[in-house]
Structure formats: C-alpha cells, structure tokens
Amino acid sequence: MTENFPTDKKSLRTKHLQLRDALPAGYRQVSTRAIVTHVLSRVARNAVVAGYCAIRGELDISTLMKVLVERGNAICLPG
Fold first, then answer.
1. 53 vs 5, 7, 24, CA distance in Å?
2. Could you tell me if 36 and 63 are in contact, meaning their C-beta atoms sit under 8 angstroms apart?
C-alpha cells in the first residue's frame, strides 16, 4: 500500500478497524476456514488454547473453539 498510515495508537486503531470492516464477507469466510484448518492441524489434543468472542467485525472463531472443546482442548477466554 502506498497510503500513509497514522502513527498514534487511536488513529492506527481507527484506520485498521475501517480496513477490516471493508473486507468482503467471502474473504472473511475463507480466512476463517483457513484459520480453523491451520489451528486444528497444529494444536495437540488436550492442549489449552486461548480464544476470544468476536466483536466489531473480528473473525468468528466460535466454530473452531467448539471443535477444539469436542477434541478435549480447554479454551481460555479473556475475562
């Protein structure tokens, strides 16, 4: 990208949220599937895994977390 990016934290956050929100739904779905495949191929069964509940356009990894729990993994979420 040739676009100038802000350097202060608040402006950077705003800019990146705008960029993320502009991603097409199809791209988000493909990205989510790729993340699920990648994580499942690399995380040992019964390992403890950090997760998150998606907000404001973040990739929804709830399916990944469900599969991990079914495999015996423990999920840690921020409190």
1. 28, 28, 20
2. yes
Are the C-beta atoms of 43 and 73 separated by less than 8 Å?
Answer: yes
73 exposure class (CB count in 10 Å sphere: 0-12, 13-18, 19+) = buried
Closest C-alpha to 62, from 79, 47, 77: 77
Radius of gyration of the chain (CA): 15
Whether the model pTM is above 0.85: no
In angstroms, the CA 21 to CA 55 distance is 11
Which residues are within 8 A (CB) of 36 and not within 5 positions of it... i.e. 6 or more apart? 61, 63, 64, 67
Report residue 19 as tokens: 């960029």
Chain segment 26-74, per-residue pLDDT in tens = 998 898 899 999 999 999 999 999 999 988 888 899 999 999 999 999 9
